[in-house]
Amino acid sequence: MSTATTREYETTKDLDDATAQALHRLLRAMADTKLLLGYHYGEWTFGTPALEAAVANCSLSQSELGHLRLLDGVLKKFFGDDPEAALEDRDAAAFANVTYLDRDLPGWAGCVAMNAVVDFALTELLAALVGSTFRPVRQNVDKMLDEERYHIHHGRGWLRTWAARGDGERAALADQVGVALDSVTAWFGPANEADDALLVAAGIKTRSSGDILEAVRSETAAMATDLGLGLPAPAPVDFAAWTPATRRAGGGGPDAEILGHLRGDRNDLFKRM
Amino acid sequence: MTAETIYEVFARKAHTEELKHVGSVNAADDDLAKAYAWTVYDEESWVEMCVVPRASVIPVTAHGAIPLWGN
């Protein structure tokens, strides 16, 4: 039986401080992950096994960055986050993205795993915000989910295609899907995590992180079974150092070169004009 | 590599318009055909788009028989 309140929140002023901070951290983590998803899809506009996949990745990159802009708008209006400062001025260790995106993807199998697991996990989280009691979030979710439908088609299509390509491709794919699942598991955090409990109790999220993760794992496992992908056993996650601010069990952050690309270091001259 | 299928893409910009043929994509399965159609033919805000495997299109005229006056 659901115990979530049916109240609706127009602004963070209607929330208690702890719940508002929990929402801030969740949206920041989603925005950081969308940023890195957009980056990697953009990187994989070239070098895809099919021209259509290059066009698709370019489009998926644009939609992820569009979603980032929507989240930036909420983060700025309700939490005072400056989107430019969030990208330019934070240490790598402050980024709260899914760790699978911290480094260059290891080949096309990695890109497919990102699409089919990491992007899919974010979509499942978005689905848990449909009907959110926090109206500014709810108003943006439908548009994002509408676009994510094509991300899911692309991820599933390439899982099937790459798994059928050969033993080496299938083994690499199984390995990368396993790594991506482990990083998503760490990102969603420990069971009964305090921020998550507050957000679910306030009806801002309609499902707990544990429920969302279970859905991601079971759907991915079912597909892997159909495709003959022998996924590795889930790696145990030590949540002792995990915090909702970064959602990282083991510290770290995006690679310096990736952050340099994101910050447009090569265009530094123009930024100083 | 999985064999690719040619899918014909149809779309319309408004519910009051008829579906029009807008192009085709090569894809390994229906999921990829949907993703490719949506991302390749994204020049309009379509209200409906669908894909059909070319092999499922039943020809009415004889293939390749282009009349002298064209078609």
Determine the strand fraction of chain B and express it as a percent band: 25-35%
Largest beta-sheet details of chain A:
none
Classification by helices and strands of chain B: alpha+beta
Low-confidence stretches of chain A: none
This entry's quaternary arrangement is heterodimer
Helix content of chain B: 10-25%
Look at the structure and give the mean pLDDT of chain B: 89
Name the chain pair with the biggest interface and residue counts per chain.
A-B, 19 and 18 residues
Could you characterize what this model shows?
The complex is a heterodimer of chains A (273) and B (71). Chain A is mostly helical and 273 residues long. Chain A has helices at 17-43, 51-79, 83-88, 107-127, 135-163, 167-188, 194-201, 209-227, 256-262, 268-271. Helix content of chain A is 63%, strand content 0%. Chain A is globular. The relative contact order of chain A is 0.15. The model of chain A has no long low-confidence stretch (mean pLDDT 95). Chain B is built from 1 helix and 3 strands; from the N terminus they run ββαβ. The longest helix of chain B has 11 residues, at 30-40. The mean pLDDT of chain B is 89. Chains A and B meet through α2 and α5 of A and β2 and α1 of B.
